[in-house]
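Example record used in the benchmark description.
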Amino acid sequence: MSTISLRLPNYLHDSLRELAQEEEVSINQLIVLAIAEKVSALAAEDYLAKRAARADRAKFEAAMAKVPKVEPEGYDRL
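Model output (structure tokens):
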């Protein structure tokens, strides 16, 4: 486990303290969860961009051509 020193504006520290109390967690835990969430979102964005770069329109059209052209069941309609 690593330790970092972090400088926060007072207003942000106050907000963190209040949120941590509401969530009944430590400020440290709240910050760790927020960082983990952000890292996960950025990793997902990167993964999806790489996946999209491999896309092949012809293969997509071929797969879609196999889908039956039928109306959805009543329970499956919007």
